[in-house]
Amino acid sequence: VAKPDPILRADGIRRSFGGLTAVDVDHLEVQRGTITALIGPNGAGKSTLFNLLTGFDRVDSGQWTYEGRSLQGLAGHQVARRGMVRTFQLTKALTRMTVMDNMLLAAQGQVGEKMLGGLLRLWTTQEAANRKRAIELLERFKLDTKRDEMAGSLSGGQRKLLEMARALMVQPGMVMLDEPMAGVNPALVQSLLGHITALRDDGMTVLFVEHDMDVIMGISDWIVVLAEGKIIAEGCPDDIRSNTQVIDAYLGA
Ligand code: ADP
Ligand code: MG
C-alpha cells in the first residue's frame, strides 16, 4: 500500500440549512493521483460538500487544505486557480453560447458562471494560449467539429464531455465531478469512464459522485460513503462491496 499523500484534507466541515444538518464531516482525505468516489443516498450531502470544498457555498465551521494550503474563505474562482476544479451543469446562459466560447469563459477560472457580461476578453496573448488549449481539449473529447455550435444543441453525453473539457481549461491538479454520467445514453458511459480514468493516468486526482455501483466499483481506487451528512464508511471497492451493512442500509443495491 502506498504511503498516504493527501492532496486534499478537510476537518470538521459543517453546514446546516435551517434546522437541517446537511454536512457534518469530521475528517476527509483524498489521496493524490487516485479516483475517489463519494457515494450515498439522495440528500446525503454530497453536492453540498462539493460546493463547500470548492468555495461555492460557505461552511458554518471547518478547515480544509489543498496542496497543504488553506482554502478557507476563498471564492470558487480562487479555489479553481489553486488547481481544484469542479464541473458544472451547463446553465441556460451557457447553452446559448458556442462550444468554443464556453471553453474560453471557463479559462477565466470559473469566475462567476452567472455573470457572463464583459468576460469574453478581446484578443490577448493569454487568449491565444486559451484558444490553443481549448482546441486541444475539444479534439480530445471529440467535440472539435462542434466548436461553433451552440452548447445547447449538444446531446446529453456531449454536454457531459463539454462540462469536463471546461473544467480542464485551468489545468487543474484535482477535478471534482458531480454525477458525470447523469442522463447519459448507456452507449456513452464507457467512453465517459475512459475519459475519467485518463484524467488519473495524466496525473490528476479525481473525486466524483456517482450512483451506479458497477461504475463506482469499476473505476474507483477508494470509496467514501456519506449518509445524513456524515462519513459512515470508507475503503477500497472490495471492502465496501463486502460491507453488507453499508450496502443494505444506505445504498439499496
Ligand atoms: P446529495 O447531493 O447527496 O443528494 P445535497 O447536498 O444536495 O445531497 O443535499 C443535502 C441536504 O441539504 C438535503 O436535505 C437538501 O435538501 C439540503 N439542501 C441542499 N442545498 C440546500 C439549500 N441551498 N437550501 C436548503 N437546503 C439545502
Ligand atoms: Mg447531489
Automatic annotation (TrEMBL):
Keywords: ATP-binding, Nucleotide-binding, Transport. It comes from Murinocardiopsis flavida. This is Amino acid/amide ABC transporter ATP-binding protein 1 (HAAT family). One of its GO terms (cellular component) is plasma membrane. The keyword Transport applies. It comes from the Bacteria. Gene3D superfamilies: P-loop containing nucleotide triphosphate hydrolases. Residues 8-253 form the ABC transporter domain. GO terms for molecular function: ATP binding; ATP hydrolysis activity. The keyword Nucleotide-binding applies. InterPro entries: ABC_AA/LPS_Transport, ABC_transporter-like_ATP-bd, ABC_transporter-like_CS, BCA_ABC_TP_C, P-loop_NTPase.
